[in-house]
Amino acid sequence: MEPSVGGGQMDDEEELMDIVAARSRGGSGEVGLRELEMFELEIMQQREYEQSKQEEIHPSTPGNTFVGDEVTEELKEDDVSTSKVVQDQMFITNHPQVTSKTPSAEAGPEEVQPRLTCVQNQPVMATAHPGAYAVAPGNTSNESTADDQATTPREGMDGLVVANPVEENEEPTQIARPGHLHGNTGSTSMTLMILVLIGSLLFVGAIVGSICGAGLCSNQEGDVETQAPTSIRYSVLEDIKNRIEEAFGPDYFPENDEPEPTQPKFKALDWIVFDDPLQLNPHASNLLQRFILSLTYFQTSRESDWLDCGPSTTANDETCWIRMRGFESVASRWLTGVHECQWAGIYCDGEKDIAQLQLYQNGLNGPLPTELASLTALESMHLKGNQLTGSIPLELFGTKLSSLSLANNSLTGTVPTEVGLFDGTVLQFGSNSLSGSIPTELFQTGKRITTFRFNDNMLTGTLPTEIAALHGLNQLIVYLQGNPLRGTIRSEIGLLQGSLKELDISWTHMDGSLPEELFTKCTNLISLRVSNCGLTGTISTGLQLLTNIQTFDVSNNKFHGTIPKQLSDLTELRQFIVNGNGLSGSMPSAVCALADPGKEYFEVTADCLPSEGTGNPMVECSCCTLCCDGDAEDYCLPV
Q1: How many alpha carbons lie under 13 Å from residue 85 in its C-beta half-sphere?
Q2: How many helices (H) and strands (E) does the chain have?
Q3: Residue 176 to residue 122: CA distance in whole angstroms
Q4: What would the mean pLDDT of 505-517 be, rounded to a whole number?
Q5: Rounded to a whole number, what is the distance in angstroms from the first to the last CA of the chain?
Q6: DSSP-based three-state secondary structure for 134
Q7: Among 113, 178, 303, 330, which one has the highest count of C-beta atoms within 10 angstroms of its own C-beta?
Q8: Which is more confident, 474 or 463?
Q9: Beta-carbon contacts of residue 544 (< 8 Å; ≥ 6 apart)
Q10: How many Å apart are CA 625 and CA 604, to the nearest integer?
């Protein structure tokens, strides 16, 4: 059926199919039955509206005639005249200058059939053949071209569109619909409903975000909230900062100074707030300890990363092997999305509070953070064999710590007097660069200390006589070797009696003789090492009273005389080292008799090589495992 000049009616079925096709080309996909019904209803309403408007359409010069809010498109004389009312639902533009171009004279009557289709408030241009009219935006500038002037609408006709012919294979221009003109109250109502719905969702989202930001949408443990947008995490930044400053002071994050992004505490804060997969809320019970651990990582990896178990650098790499307690085990890497109690070297109590921190030989470098003292449940910290620098944090003393090992690092400074506040059992500061004297505050009545290893530092002074105050202990292990200590071992050491188990003052500058009380009182000694000092005198016959002794090393001193013969009761003996002195005579048969083949290890060393001076051995020994030349320092041969 040919379209009429006025209303442009078409066959119902053909019109409907065109709409379906146009809808599909618009990207909506399949069209359901409900949509077809809506399309058909819309066509009926459109036809009624067009019929009511027929009387208002007036002819004009060839081109475009604008009447009110309608546009009538008329073709030239030789063309089939077609007019189409473009209503509110069709493509429009808000620019006041809207132009169109009429089809060329060569176009046949069957080739020029403009069809502007609108589907459910979403305009769609349906053109399918050469010469069809497409919506054109018109001239968007303030100046009209010569071609535009011939078809420029009269003033006041804002918000209208026109149809332009398109060439074959040319896509029609589509212009987004900016707003309503009039009519179609159903579409307006639908739009209002959608806007209300969107507004409601945004309102609810804002409320939920505020609740989460306040820390009220955490999981059942109250520690972790779901992954939040960055904007929401910014809202909890101040609360988290305040929580941390409650623990470390109001100026912990200075507001007047520009934050140093490379400072470990700012990096730790940034990780906690934005990068931590757990996204803790400000009231999480483990917030502080997780912050302290992240700070520990950032502060001890500034020069180089850890050897093992640092943060993952590749996907699906959240576990590692770590050396702990003499063996290797699998654990979670630091700064991963599991609870910090599962990180390598971390052990927690039943309340998920950190009780132990053990990272042996793992490449930790830089100063140790003082914030570790705020781990109130921490009882053991073993960081032996790293590259830690700086001084021993004073804050670590007076805490719940019972075992502190910072041996084999690069710590400097002194052993602080605050060590007197330490109420634990084990202090290991050996193999560092500590200086000064041994604080007497460490040796106070009532102290529980059982082991202090201050060996291989630069400590000066003497062995404090106050050490005798530790006499009530079950055992006491004292390692002071490798320090330039001076003076003598005072007789007060005998007051330790059954407490003293191990004493090592080798490679010091101590002199004088070994006090007799060391042999007659400290009968629970299992190891006595006093080699490479300046000790003089003889070896006491009281040695036979040390029935638990396993290691007796007095090598490279200035002892003289003979080796006591009454040593048959030293059944636990494993090492008997007396070379490098002025001893003479023979090795007691009681000692040689102790060389039980069933013993895993038995070492006897004496000056049993022919002397460089006399050609004769200074000590005759039939059971020695190593013979040395008393006249040639450190010249020994295995037997």
Answers
A1: 25
A2: 9, 31
A3: 9
A4: 96
A5: 123
A6: strand
A7: 113
A8: 463
A9: 564, 566, 567, 568, 569, 570
A10: 5
Largest CA distance in the chain: 144
Which tokens belong to 359? 């990272």
Instruction: Calculate the CA 638 to chain-centre distance.
Output: 54
Query: Distance (Å, rounded) from C-alpha 549 to C-alpha 442?
Result: 27
Ordered DSSP codes for 158-210: TT--EEEE--TTPPPP--------S--HHHHHHHHHHHHHHHHHHHHHHHHHH
* Phi, psi torsion values for 462, nearest 5 degrees: -125, 170
User: Quick one: pLDDT band at residue 68, thresholds 50, 70, 90?
Assistant: very low
Which among 592, 581, 588 is positioned nearest to 618, based on CA atoms?
Answer: 581
Q: Degrees (nearest 5) of the Cα angle 472, 476, 479?
A: 150
pLDDT category at 389 given cuts 50, 70, 90 is: very high
Tens digit of each residue's pLDDT (9 = 90 or more) over 579-597 = 999 999 999 999 999 887 7
Tokens of 352: 């998920």
Residue 579: per-residue pLDDT? 95
Could you give the count of Cα atoms lying within 13 Å of 347 in the half-sphere of its Cβ?
12
| CA distances from residue 223 to 205, 226, 354 in whole angstroms, order as listed | 22, 10, 15
Cβ atoms 244, 273 nearer than 8 A? no
pTM of the model: 0.65
HSE-CB at 291 with a 13 A cutoff on CA atoms is: 28
Give me 203's structure tokens.
Answer: 């309102």
Average pLDDT over the chain, rounded to whole?
76
Which tokens in the block code for residue 455? 């060996």
Q: What is the pLDDT of residues 154-167, one digit of tens each?
A: 344 344 344 444 44
Strand bridging mode 133-136 / 122-125: unpaired
In DSSP notation, 8-32 reads: ----HHHHHHHHHHHHIIIII----
Look at strands 451-453 and 458-460 and give their pairing: unpaired
**Exposed (0-12), middle (13-18) or buried (19+): which is 105, by Cβ within 10 Å?**
exposed
- Cβ neighbours of residue 391 under 8 Å, at least 6 residues apart? 367, 411, 412, 413, 414, 416
Q: Which residue has the higher pLDDT, 208 or 166?
A: 208
Give residue 263's identity as a one-letter amino acid code: Q
- What 3 state SS string does 66-130 have? EECCEEEEECCCCCCCCCCCCCCCCCCCCCCCCCCCCCCCCCCCCCCCCCEEEECCEEEECCCCC
Question: Do 340 and 293 touch, CB atoms closer than 8 A?
Answer: yes
Residue 147 CB: number of other CB atoms within 10 A?
11
Measured between alpha carbons, how far is 531 from 542 in angstroms, rounded to an integer? 19
CA nearest neighbour of 103 among 84, 123, 85, 78: 78
